[in-house]
Structure formats: structure tokens, C-alpha cells
UniProtKB/TrEMBL annotation:
Signal peptide (UniProt feature, chain positions): 1-19
InterPro entries on file: Metalloenz_LuxS/M16, MPP/UQCRC_Complex, Pept_M16_N, Peptidase_M16_C
Keywords, comma-separated and alphabetical: Signal
Domain Peptidase M16 C-terminal, residue spans: 196-370
Protein name per its UniProtKB record: Pitrilysin family protein
Family affiliation: Belongs to the peptidase M16 family.
Domain Peptidase M16 N-terminal span(s) in chain numbering: 39-176
Top-level taxon: Bacteria
Entry GO MF terms: metal ion binding
Amino acid sequence: MRHLASAIAALALSSSLAAQGPLRVPVTVDTLPNGLTLIIHRDPSVPVVTTNVWYHVGSGDEKVGRTGFAHLFEHLMFMGSKNAPYPQFDRLLEAAGANNNGSTNPDRTNYYESGPASALPLMLWLEADRLGWMLETMDAPKVDLQRDVVKNERRQSYENQPYGLAFEHLVAAIYPKGHPYSWSTIGSMADLSAASLEDVKDFFRTYYTPNNASIVVAGAVNVDSVRALARQMFGEIPRGPAIERPRPAPFTLRDTTIVLEDRVQLPRVYLAWHAVPEFSADDAALDVAAYILAGARNSRLTQALVFQRELATNASAFNSSKRLDGDFQVVATARPGIALDSLTRVIDAELRRLASEPPTARELEQAKNSIEASFLNGLEFVDAKADRLNAYYYATGTPDYFQQDLDRYRRVTAADVSRVVRQYLLTGRVTLSVVPQGRTNLAATPRVTQ
């Protein structure tokens, strides 16, 4: 029923959008003399405001032997700056009724503040102070403290988490050694231990600069006032050096089989293929294929593995497209006593079927409706719109890319879905089995290719 409701909502919203014309999220875009990009979206419906800063650096900008720096900096940015020493950043925002946080992925590091519109000057001042005047307060004790915090986070999320090391092994097998996406965002223990204070400062000087950042201010704001505030707060921070981005070479993924023993009760199989970067020609069709395979209770793998044959407790599929490259994954957890070969045989059969027989009109419509409903629901809150504006700006150069993004899914045909499955998901892949300790007999065996 939930999926039916989503489909109905999407159809209603689509009809409304069609009647109103193209979907627009109006913005003004300015570039300060120091290179900082300022994107302003006025939404006076509720008296709240969000500031959303993207530094265009993620784990994909790191170098071999120096991984984990982008995520480490996400933590260090909350350790105080010249005019807002620790823990004033959080205390001042909390006193104003605002909240804040940050996140890191392979392509960017993001920081945001959300709260009443009256808190905007404080939000901008705090962001400017840690961009322009944090480095002089950076010292070894701060780095050591946050290094230990990140190491503990790694232990909790990777080493001591069931199936926690699967992703790290998977990306290292999908992408060639040295590829920007061949290591996890959190970095390795060895690299975190080796990071010196000067290494950290060099990373900041290179990437935490106005010309490597974009800031979205969205909500109940006056555009001219925001422009004036931004110039007042950020204007005297100097431009940084030009940045050379990584340029990964093309590669072909060959069949690779990996077996991990872990403290788990049920075996799980991960299948991964090399796919495409975000917003490239086949990106949307791969998203639709992922939904048709495992996006709902009536999706093909969910039905075949979980309900009909009762071989698995769950199945998922997702297209992980990123700025420089992408991969596609299918993940399924077996029921007790079921060997993973039983699952991979069913998955392979369903992939071959989808490659040779396009999805039905009903399957395609459900997939598009669900994706569109999720897309439109994401526009409900101003903080989500702000983050999407920043994402579009970095990926396409156009912050208001909402209609173009929506259109690419609407254009996907049933033939497109079959074609991308044939082109990307019947080729070389990584097969990773995570099995209970001592039960390697449950692991998936290398497939026999024709």
C-alpha cells in the first residue's frame, strides 16, 4: 500500500507540475572576488533558514598513503576557530535555536546550519571564522584527539560491525589500485596514524579555500541582505591555490571472487559491477533498473529470492554513481543454512531475463512513479533543497537543475533498462561473500562464463 500511495502521490504531483509548467527552484548566484560561490534561494513560507556549505573535496581527492583526511577534517572543523574557540560553535547555535552537522563522501565535504531566520548572521559568521581563522588555532592535541575519535568510529562502523568490512574490500576490488574510489571515506588505520600536524595543515591550505567552496543560503531571507552579509563575513579571506583534480584512467573490471569470514549468523553476497558517473547518459536507466530488481516488495529479486523460493531474508540493488565514476551493486542475505551459490544462480537468471525481456509497462511505471515521488518529497524542506542546490551546482554548474534531473528519469524506456543491464550487469564483476567463521563452504564460487 505504501508504494501505491507513493505512486498516486507522484501522479498527482506530476499532473500539478504539468499544469504549472517546468519545476523551478529560483536562485541567484554570485561569485565573490575571492572565488566563493554564493547561491541564494528565497522561500518565505516558514521563517527558517539553512546555510549549506560544500567544500569540493572528498576522499576521492586524497592520495595513496594519505587517506581519511577529508573525513578527519569534518571532525576538526568543529574544534574551534580564532574568534569562536571550542565549544562556542555549538553553544552559540544552540542558544539561537539552531542546529548543525557535517558529512563527508568521496566527492565533497558538507557543513550545514538550520534554524530561525534571525540566526543567519550568526551562521555565516561562524562558517566564515572557521574558514578564514581556524588554521592558526590548529595544534597537535586537537589533531590527536579527533584522530582517536575517527579511529574509534572506524572500529565501531567497520571492524566491530557485522559485515562492516565488506564495503572496504568491495571498492578495493571494483576500482584499480590508486583509483580515487578504491578506498573508503573513513580511511585506513595506518594512514590516520601517520597523519602529522603539518600534513593536516597542508590539506586545509589546499582545499579549505573560498574558491573551492560553494555556500547555499535558503529560506526566509532577503537576497540583497544575504549578499551584503556574505561579503562582510567572507570577503577578506584570501583565495587559495588552483586545485588539480584526479583523472582516473578507464579500466575494465574482470571477474573477482572474495570470501570474508566474519562474526555473523547469516551469509551475505555482494555482487558489484563497474558502471557510470552521475548524470551521464545511462545513469538514470541504471537507477530504474535497480528499482525494478529490488526496489519494492513486488520487485523481481525480492519476489524470486525472498518470497517465492525463500532463499534470502532480503535483497537490495542500487546504482552508486559518483562524480568521477560509478558502480552498481546487488546485495542479498541468505536464510540459515542456504549456500550463497543458490542466491547467485537466481540473481544471474533474473539479470539475464531483464536483459533479454524489457520490463513490463506496469513495472516501468511503478519504478518511475516511486523515483519521482521520492524526488518531489525531497523538495518539501528547505534544508533538503539547499543541499540539492549545492549538489547540482557542483555536478552540473546549474543549481536549479531540478527539472532537467526529473526529465532524465521520465525519458527512460523499457528498452533502455534492458540495454543497460546487458551492457553493464552481464560483464565482469566482483563477487564478495561474507560468511560465518569456519563456514567458507557457504561462500559463492567463481562463476563459469561462456
